[in-house]
Amino acid sequence: MPWPQATAPSGWLKCNGQAFDKNIYPLLGQAYSSGILPDLRGEFIRGCDDGRGVDPSREPLSLQGFTVQGHTHPSGSYSRGSGTLLYTSVGMQTGGDRVFSETRENENAGTETRPRNIAFNYIVRAA
């Protein structure tokens, strides 16, 4: 469960990839037969598809890498003998010596694609 503090409360463990003793925590051992808790640091949790058809090939605890949905960015330029380049947002148009398009840098550009979010630690009951 999400936990808003840096340390887990007594009787709980952080989901940070740590190993645990299945003899001491037999219920955790049933859920995590490897004896290792999932490492949820910096990860988003996504609900299992469970027959819905949105993400059908996933199993509980499976890791999914990042993707960016395929899309296009048409581009081009307009030139007249002077070498002037003009860009427009009217979409792709061609004709003679003209190709119009728009190119912009996103002011929120970063090293990953992500939704807005709030950081929590994830914890599990140590039982």
Automatic annotation (TrEMBL):
<dbReference type="InterPro" id="IPR011083">
    <property type="entry name" value="Phage_tail_collar_dom"/>
</dbReference>
<dbReference type="InterPro" id="IPR037053">
    <property type="entry name" value="Phage_tail_collar_dom_sf"/>
</dbReference>
<feature type="domain" description="Phage tail collar">
    <location>
        <begin position="1"/>
        <end position="45"/>
    </location>
</feature>
<dbReference type="Pfam" id="PF07484">
    <property type="entry name" value="Collar"/>
</dbReference>
<dbReference type="InterPro" id="IPR051934">
    <property type="entry name" value="Phage_Tail_Fiber_Structural"/>
</dbReference>
<protein>
    <submittedName>
        <fullName>Tail fiber protein</fullName>
    </submittedName>
</protein>
